[in-house]
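User: Hey, quick favor. My workstation is busy. Could you predict this chain's structure for me?
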Amino acid sequence: MKPLIFNCLAILCFGHVYGQQNFTVTGKVPQSLNGQKVELVLFDVSSGVSLGSDANVAIVSNGSFTIKGTMSKPYTVADILATDKKGNRWSVNVVLEAKENQFVAQEVYPNEKHFNNKFSKAGIVNSRPNYIHQQLDSVELALQDRNTKDNKQQLIQKEQLTLLMNYPNDDCSVFELDRISRHMGNKDLALKVFNSFSPSVKSSFLGKPFAAAMDKYSSTKVGMPAPLFSVATDKGKTFTNSSLKGSAYVIVFSATWCVPCQIVQKKMLVLYHKYRPQGLKVVYFNLDGNAVKWKKHIRENKLDWINVSEGVNWQDSKIASQYAVNAVPVYLIVDKQGKIIYNGPEMNDVYYNNLEEYISKGL
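Assistant: No problem, here it is.
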């Protein structure tokens, strides 16, 4: 996994609301689970948070069960969990579709390699999305044990994204593309993969919002002019970055509850005071709707730069969405000509070790 710095926050790439859609899971499991509980736990792909509820539970009878529910998108990731009478617990990760899903677990081998405490030979049958999902999982399993000097998680993501190019006509490929790439700072490969999809997939109900998200990503890449915005300061005044024309400045997206943000914040304060005499400005966004907590944070940490907030929680931030922010902290540096010369996530500068170098270039 990536270091914690980029795992603090996820913002939805998909801005479209689909409404509630019905699904059914009809399962066939080993007889040893008769009378036992089966749970279906849905996950919000954007945050990894469980969307499960007590309603998504069934008791196995005659080796079968049925669970019905609703989901907000055409596809979602879910775990199917069960515990036998001996207390052995198994699970399998699947992709649910907004229709009937036929789950089959023919055998259970708790000690099988890569399937410890999981259903073996289990999954949703006759499902194209689950076939693709299993191919992606096989890539991860194959690379887990590989000795490499490269970042293993980045290598897995690269291999998985490349694999998706083999399925250009499946709209579920967009779902998997978003799931894998949303926490990647540099999305150039994701954009390349998306562009390899068929026109019908790119214009599908999932393709259109993903394309819009990629447009925002492209507009904040190094070399692009910084998108303009207006926002309230902690003093209640309106600030716009157009007022910084001719000045070099840093744009920061942060949150009071984000621990890694506070670590990089200390580094940024030192750099700000060092380069402020040369004209450096800092525009520090707080993605937290709690104004009292935000202003207390400013006082306690002596944040004497330009502090701004839309007064909403992160998921409702229009400016964060405008800047394709999908994790915090995010740092960008804009030069005196108004062009972005540094984008931490895009440049994979995970710990922001190159901030000072690019601040100097901007000045």
